Every structure is written in structure tokens, then in C-alpha cells.
Amino acid sequence: MDSLTDICRVISQCRNCDLHFSRKRAVCGIGPGNARLMIVGEAPGSSEDEKGLPFVGRSGKLLDQVLSNLNLRREEIYITNSVRCRPMLGKPPKLSEIRTCSGYLRREIELVKPSLVIPMGNSALGSLGFVINRKFDRVTEIVGKVIDHGEFFICPQFHPAAILRNPKRREYFEEYFRKASALLEDLGRMPREEIVRKYNSSRF
Ligand code: SF4
Fold first, then answer.
1. Ligand 1 center–CA 30 separation, angstroms
2. Where do the domains of the chain lie, and which CATH numbers do they carry?
3. pTM (2 decimals)?
4. N or C, where is the chain less crowded by C-beta within 10 Å?
């Protein structure tokens, strides 16, 4: 898989896990091949499954609202998922399915080379963990933290579906994206260890 188009072609025909039984359309990642920011979600929902595009349902609308409030342009962000086929009845994907599908995320990261990856929710953290061979705590333990992986920073975030279920968390959701946006501005003009210190301090 030498290009994002190649990855998408392979995903569209993939039958490597049982999730291909429940999909109408596999959903590829979308966005520029040189995006500085990559967002990883969980799995396609019913709207995504119908349209074959990521984050076009209610979660996507919430994400769009928050991004546009912060002047983060969706067209400049690469958006993908931990699994590319909709699980039956909208259940969360199994760890084995996330592991099987994580090869696509690995290749997307290798090709896009983002500066910052935002995994939204536990499935996305699990998938990123398979890619970089690291075990993450649950999202509620590390949400909003800035982790330097060396090749890119990681800033775990709630999944927008969790915000729809619990709107009290919305201000945190916005705050963590605000932090991510500011971090992108600081990249290249501040040493990495200073970035980690600044964005993990309670003053931010
Ligand atoms: S979820 Fe991923 S690994 Fe499973 S069938 Fe779909 S594309 Fe293949």
C-alpha cells in the first residue's frame, strides 16, 4: 500500500475480520496526505456506513461545530477510524477487530506523517497502541494529556458520541481541541520537552 488511495482500495475489499459481514460500505480515512493533525475515531455509524465517509452523522456534526469554533479547518485534517466497517447494532468493536484493522492506521500514519494525533475514545487509543506498541490507560485517565511519541505528539480526547451522551463534558472536549490547536502553533518554535511541560501544566 504505497498511497492513501491504495489503502482505501484495499480497505474497500477487506474481509480480514468479521466486521465485513455487517457493513454496507467500508469507510476509508479522508483528508490531505500531508495533514499535520490526524484524528482517529472508533468505527463507522449508520450514516457513515450508508455514505462510506467518516464522521458524517451526529458525532461528525458535533466534531464539525467544535472544529469550526476553533478555526480548525476539517479539510486540513486527516480523519480516520480504528475499524473501517460498522459493527453490528452499533456496538463498540472488539479488541481483536481493532488489532486486525490497526495495520491500516499504521500505514496511514507512515504516509501522512502527522505532527499530532488525537485518538478519540478507547477504541482509538487501543488501535494507536497496536500501531506504536504501547499500552494506554483508559481515555478517562489520560484525556487532555500531551504525550510525546517522538515522531508525533498524542493528545487523547473523548469520542464525540460520549459528549452527546453526557453534554456536561462538552466544555472539556472543546478545551482539549483548543489545546491541540495551540500546540500545533507552537510546534517548530519551541523544544518538544517544553511543549510537553507547557501543555501538561495546570496553567494551560
Ligand atoms: S474492520 Fe478493518 S480489518 Fe475488519 S473487515 Fe473492515 S477493513 Fe477489514
1. 16
2. 4-200 (3.40.470.10)
3. 0.95
4. C
